């Protein structure tokens, strides 16, 4: 991944968020504050503006600017959480290009950052339920000899499975946890937007 590809990925996220904002908000209306799609749409629109016309020397600089912009413009929990993901990942990518192995390190750092901030683990019905299996699948694919596009496709599929697995869960963290058993039967909006991010990564690095 070079800076051009990193920019393409972030812009693809912004496009997908605009497209799916209503769905994300509807999912959040069932078990949250009904603002997830609206907030992410606002945040990634601001990210696009922050990236336009700016020269970036490293992949990490692209992701760090993305994270910083999300923290400063997105309300609710998603701004700090996704902002932390991108900033932590960016710190691990200080060079103009990044190998698949370095991207794995960056994704791990992003996962660690959101785990610490949200104090969530797999099974809590949060974005972690898509993020953790995606990173594990990315690593397993690399260890099995996959290249970056192959690993990204595998990670996207795992994120999708993790997203769907949140439907029968009872939320134990976040706003949804206040509903207790009533949170069952609803897909977690954070896991859904996380799956979107991994899906756009796979699309961005596709040959």
Q: Can you describe what's shown?
A:
The protein has 207 residues and is mainly α. The model has no long low-confidence stretch (mean pLDDT 95). The chain has a single domain, classed as DhaL domain (Serine Threonine Protein Phosphatase 5, Tetratricopeptide repeat), CATH 1.25.40. The termini are close together. Helix 4 (78-91) runs antiparallel to helix 5. It is globular, with a radius of gyration of 16 Å. 69% of the residues lie in helices and 0% in strands.
Give the SSE map.
Blueprint: H1 3-31, H2 36-51, H3 59-73, H4 78-91, H5 100-118, H6 128-143, H7 148-165, H8 189-204
Q: Count the E strands.
A: 0
Please identify the oligomeric state: single chain
Shape: globular
CATH topology: Serine Threonine Protein Phosphatase 5, Tetratricopeptide repeat
Number of domains: 1
- Uncertain ranges: none
- The named CATH superfamily: DhaL domain
Q: N-to-C terminal Cα separation, in Å?
A: 12 Å
Tell me the major beta sheet.
none
Treating each run of at least 4 consecutive H or I residues as one helix, how many helices? Answer: 8
Helices and strands, in order, run as HHHHHHHH
Descriptors:
about 210 residues; Serine Threonine Protein Phosphatase 5, Tetratricopeptide repeat; mainly alpha; globular
Task: Give a short synopsis of this structure.
The chain is mainly α and 207 residues long. 69% of the residues lie in helices and 0% in strands. It has helices at residues 3-31, 36-51, 59-73, 78-91, 100-118, 128-143, 148-165, 189-204.
């Amino acid at each position: 991944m070079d800076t051009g590809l990193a920019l393409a990925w972030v812009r693809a996220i912004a496009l997908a968020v605009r497209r799916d904002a209503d769905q994300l908000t509807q999912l959040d209306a069932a078990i949250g504050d009904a603002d997830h799609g609206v907030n992410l749409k606002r945040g990634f629109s601001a990210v696009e503006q922050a990236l336009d016309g700016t020269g970036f020397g490293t992949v990490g600089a692209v992701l760090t600017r993305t994270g910083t912009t999300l923290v400063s413009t997105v309300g609710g929990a998603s701004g700090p959480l996704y902002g932390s993901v991108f900033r932590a990942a960016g710190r691990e990518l200080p060079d103009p290009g990044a190998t698949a192995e370095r991207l794995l390190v960056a994704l791990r750092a992003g996962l660690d950052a959101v785990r610490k901030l949200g104090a969530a683990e797999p099974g809590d019905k949060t974005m972690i339920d898509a993020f953790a299996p995606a990173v594990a699948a990315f690593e397993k694919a690399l260890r099995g000899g996959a290249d970056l596009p192959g690993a990204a496709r595998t990670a996207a599929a795992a994120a999708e499975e993790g997203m769907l697995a949140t439907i029968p869960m009872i939320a134990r963290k976040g706003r949804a946890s206040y509903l207790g058993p009533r949170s069952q039967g609803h897909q977690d909006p954070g896991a859904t937007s996380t799956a979107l991010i991994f899906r756009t990564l796979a699309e961005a690095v596709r040959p």
